[in-house]
Amino acid sequence: MSSTSQGARARARIEITAAIKEEARRQLAAEGAAKLSLRGVARRLGMVSSALYRYFPSRDDLLTALIIDAYDSLGASAEAAHSAVADTEPVRRWVAVCEAVRGWALAHPHEYALIYGTPVPGYNAPRTTVPAASRVGLLLIGIARDASHAAPSAAPPLPAELRAEAERLMADIAPDLSPETATALVAAWAQLYGLVGFEVFGQFNRMVEDREPFFRHAATGLARGVGLV
């Protein structure tokens, strides 16, 4: 087979894969991840199911591809926001990343629901999703690390009963930071996605009206809780 033919086949595969993912995202928006089916995607694209299986052998393979794409898109948005303020103080960098997460989620609510909403019944995410899922967390850890080089962390002290768990967390996610900072980072990470999820899923309706300054204030509070000053 000539290199020209191989190139054409490769381009066709990329285009068909993109079309499959796009239709799957449309189904996510219309019916939710639990109802996603390869047969339904194939029918909408005018393909026979056996042809689609050559691109994604199972529904779970398609879900995994969509999840990785969503995490990578979110991570890229957060990294771009951080790059724009990379030379500023840690709190501003932290808030910029948090605001990018919020902005992405509001622009992509169905994809946000896929990665941070209700788990899809019968689906277990493989380890291949971890690098993409870690991008935002690694940014936040990096900001805390840079701040710790400039000044001692102001993260709150730990109760004695949490010390062993905090040291385990530190060893797992940031062995060069203190147990106090590692614990505060995990809590802040959970609170960040809780804040975003409340807004995306409508929990702030008839409660918080001016949401942008509310979020910025809350994200700044998370930064202080991690010890960024």
UniProtKB/TrEMBL annotation:
SUPFAM superfamilies: Homeodomain-like, Tetracyclin repressor-like, C-terminal domain
Keyword Magnesium belongs to the record: no
Limits of the HTH tetR-type domain: 14-74
Keyword Transcription among record annotations: yes
Pfam families the UniProt entry points to: TetR_C_33, TetR_N
UniProt-listed PROSITE patterns: HTH_TETR_2
Record's keyword terms, sorted: DNA-binding, Transcription, Transcription regulation
DNA-binding region range list: 37-56
Transmembrane annotation, as ranges: none
Domain of life: Bacteria
Gene3D superfamilies documented for this protein: Tetracycline Repressor, domain 2 (1.10.357.10)
PANTHER family: HTH-TYPE TRANSCRIPTIONAL REGULATOR RUTR, HTH-TYPE TRANSCRIPTIONAL REGULATOR RV1816
Name the UniProt record assigns to this protein: TetR/AcrR family transcriptional regulator
Species name: Streptomyces galilaeus
